[in-house]
Amino acid sequence: MIVRPPQNWFRMLFAWKGSVLRDIIPQLVFMAVVSGLAVLTDGRVLGEKIPLNAVPFTLCGVALTIFLAFRNNASYDRYWEARKMWGNMLIAARTLASQALCYAAPMDGAFDGVAFARGIVALAYTLKHQLRGTCPAPDLRRLLPIRAVVALADKQYKPVAQLNALRAALAASHRRMGITGTQLWMLDGQLDRLGEVVGGCERIASTPIPFAYGVLLHRTVYAYCMLLPFGLVDSIGMATPLISIFVSYTLIALEAIASDIAEPFGLAPNNLALDAMTNGIERSLLELCELELPAEATPVRPYQLT
Questions:
Q1: DSSP string computed for 162-209
Q2: 34-44 mean pLDDT
Q3: Predicted TM-score (pTM) of this structure
């Protein structure tokens, strides 16, 4: 994810890194070629004049923009819901770690509050790696005992397994009378909240926007943009490529943005900053344990992108 300092209106006109312009340049070049051919042939294809004017494009453009707005709203809803899920992860992790350190650790000599807090951090990292399809082993090795890392190695749903390990640690403390039944109920409520976050993120990741919507929008946008020069050439002449590319940039960029944020857990510049979020959870919980904090990870700045 990109975090950009506030900029004035003029600099925003020339923003490059982090925008979708760099990804859609081939499409815009193609539209420029189509527009140029429309001007050179005076709107003819194989010698036949295409009888188009601006009227049908006005009507179709209204419907297309409504459809694009629906697609972008659906994509942003997924993005914002995913962000709220990770916000809930931070809140529940802090509360659970604080409760465990304050209630269980002083009374149960066999309960290691610091190890429990690290286990919560490991849960956040396993969820991040599962959502991104990456390997969690390096993070787990620095947070968990080797036996716990080995136990998670063969698990398909590592966040669920780690959540179960945290619940088992609390249950063992309760059996040793380290925490009361009321305290266990309270702690288990925070584990339930973490479980809801895991399930919610899995739901978003495994349920994409129906493919038919994307195909229909994609075809409609490109058909509209390719036909537009032939509808404008008789009325604006040599200005046809300029106007066609401008309209094509708007429509194609909106489609690209919608596709980008519809998968909020990816590694694209406009996806969620999961690295910074998991680092924030780790730093927050280690501070509760009065341990040395790792270096702070922040979302990348535009000049850090390649």
A1: HHHHHHHHHHHHHHTTSS-HHHHHHHHHHHHHHHHHHHHHHHHHH-PS
A2: 90
A3: 0.87
Q: Are 253 and 22 in contact (CB under 8 A)?
A: no
Is residue 1's pLDDT more than 60? Answer: no
Of the candidates 253, 262, 276, the residue with the CA atom closest to the CA atom of residue 22: 253
Angle formed at CA 266 by CA 138 and CA 270, multiple of 5 degrees: 125
The least confident of 38-42, 54-58, 142-146, 202-206 is 54-58
Contact by Cβ (8 Å): 284, 101: no
pLDDT at 303: 41
User: How many Cβ atoms from other residues are within 10 Å of residue 230's Cβ?
Assistant: 26
Query: How do residues 208-240 score in pLDDT, each as one tens digit?
Result: 988 888 899 999 999 999 999 998 888 888 999
DSSP string, 132-172: HT---HHHHHHHS-HHHHHHHHT-SSHHHHHHHHHHHHHHH
Q: What pLDDT sits at residue 142?
A: 93
Amino acid 47: pLDDT? 78
Residue 301 and residue 306: Cα distance in Å, rounded? 11
Q: Name 143's Cβ contacts closer than 8 Å, sequence gap at least 6.
A: 118, 119, 121, 122, 125
CA distances in angstroms from 211 to 197, 207, 208, 215, 263, listed in the order given: 25, 11, 8, 6, 13
Residue 115's pLDDT band (cuts 50, 70, 90): very high
CA nearest to 65, candidates 242, 215, 210, 224: 224
